[in-house]
Amino acid sequence: MKKVSQYVVPPHVAFDEDNFKSYVIKKEKVDREANATVRMTRRSVDARKKKVKVNVEAEIFVDESPTLNISYKKDYPNVSDAKRVVIVGAGPAGLFAALRFLELGIKPIIIERGNDVQKRRRDLANINKKNIVNEDSNYCFGEGGAGTYSDGKLYTRSKKRGDFRRICEIFVAHSASEEILIDAHPHIGTNKLPKVIAEMRQSILDAGGEVHFETRVEDFIISGNEIKGVVTQQGDKIEGEAVLLATGHSARDIFRLLQKKEVEIERKPFALGVRIEHPQGLIDKIQYHLDDRDRGEYLPAAAYSLVSQVGYKGQKKGVFSFCMCPGGFIVPSATAPGEVVVNGMSPSRRDSQFSNSGIVVSVDDDEFGPYIKKYGELAAMEFQAEVERKACEVAGGTQVAPAQRLGDFINGKVSNDLNETSYQPGLLSVDMREVLPQAIAHRLKFGFKDFGKKMRGYLTNEAQIVGVESRTSSPVRIPREKETCEHTQIKRLFPCGEGAGYAGGIASAAMDGELCANRIATLYCGVKETSK
User: Fold this and answer.
1) What is the per-residue pLDDT across 384-422, written as a single tens digit (0 to 9) for each?
2) Which string of DSSP letters, residue by residue, matches 222-238?
3) Which of 156, 342, 353, 459 would you call most buried, defined as having the most Cβ atoms within 10 angstroms of its Cβ?
């Protein structure tokens, strides 16, 4: 017998496998002598009331073998001699496109400017401890892309573009925890993602695909209105049936190359602001309605999502939280010397004493309009870069980041000292209005005031803001046809993922990678069926 049931249970039941099984067996009045399997299928925390509850769905199998929880299998044909497709970038869009190509009998050739996940750790240590930025391998560039070392959040609202469950199952098939199939807001954890990404690479290599690290694309091979391949910094020409461009949101050299080659691109609004850091215990207290207690051993570190509309010179724009990292760390995400960029990440246990989140403001032609005459469609990108350079200059020219206590920022006061921080290169107390454009600073100030009303205790000098959070999304869109995903001007070129302006995070980028792979297979590789 199989049964599916929903329950509302306390945290010590929902987050302990043995407790949960005992609860379900008793609740469903299953005979103690029966052979019973209980498998949780959904779990979400409900902290709206003082007593926190957890909504859970489970499957119960009594005297019956449980069905397979995962249908995805790593069963790829050998593609060594198959038709080839060039993939620029080994982030989620590129990797999932490559795995899909394997399924379709097509050989993927991945070109990645950065290092593999193992070597990449040294590059991250250098930026954290020695202020040395490797322009090709850092928190943004390298195997797995920006998401590898920034939490591994999989939650997405863009599930219509692909099969979200399938994406999660592919991660699980490559050693991610099955919990990502259960939780309402799944995340893999920055400590576990490198192993998952390395296993994906191995799948590609074992099936006859290619992955080239420390290989930067410096030119495109374009004949007429059709792309044939790419040229690397070593001068090698790599050609294929198509080129899937999945470089991520920080590949400014690729955007400049596209402009130079007169390949159509468009400037795109993005979001800019700061990363705010609170003690995790304070966020737990607010979200879980705690008094002087901590959250205990079962509840996960509390998260939050905030949004406000703030006017400036007669126009309202959104101020919102972005990439909230409970129990996490702030990390330096610059991709070149002379700039300071911050991002957030969390390990799988989310057990840091700090909570951090991007708090950002929508930015469009109102802010970067003056750059259009000089930079054209790269105006938003150059505006973004200038703010990052200003942050570096104000904080002393290294990876030390400018910061200010939250209450002091609201009151226009430079902080006498700063709180303890998770940001390894260190912080310098400054007036953040020297770093942020006036409109951004204004909207952040009143956005924080509104957030303080929505979350009592949030607006405090126990919190501090760190600048700048500027790589929220690509400042450039590479236009493509809606149905085919092919560039509107250049045949066989397929802009893909977050860097091209068609995704916003790991899951949506992965789904977009699969979508583009399907289109390439149908249009140029003779594959008729691409239903997955």
Assistant:
1) 999 999 999 999 999 999 999 999 999 999 999 999 999
2) EETTEEEEEEETT--EE
3) 342
